[in-house]
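Trying the structure run again after the queue cleared.
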Amino acid sequence: MYSVNVPVPGRVRTLANELYPELVEFDDVRETHSCLLKRLGDADHVAQLQHRTHRALEGAPAVEARITGIDYFENPPLGSAPVIYLAVESPGLESIHADLTDAFDAVEGLEGTDYVPHVTLARGGDAAAAARLADREIEPVSWTVSELEFWDGLEKLSVSRVSLPA
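Done. Tokens:
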């Protein structure tokens, strides 16, 4: 599965690492962090998929993003529940997501109007523990998103980047 992801700054990774002791009771704790912007699917010709993605992103500007708190999906449409995440507020990312869903079909229940920008911290476990964690106050983190990653989910690595002009 290929996707377009938003790399997060070190301050967001540091925040996730600081929360780690409170996440260990969940089934799966993420060790790497990014914000999934759009799933692209599988491809026989990765170069063609990258080209379509780059064309869809032509002219997309750099945008502001902000971590505003901790939240969770109690009943996610895929995978184990709950999903604990850092909430990302960014009208700009939501606009880029909409552009990408014009170029690539939206995954029903996850994208389009259902898209919620976030950085997953952990999943699976006790919903009450997720609710307690979501009540925790955090210092907001703001940054400028000036590039996006073309992500290979099978290999779990970034295969290219797309710059977003300022």
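Strands lie at 2-7, 28-29, 34-41, 63-73, 83-89, 118-123, 141-145, 147-152, 157-163. Worth checking whether this holds up in the mutant runs.
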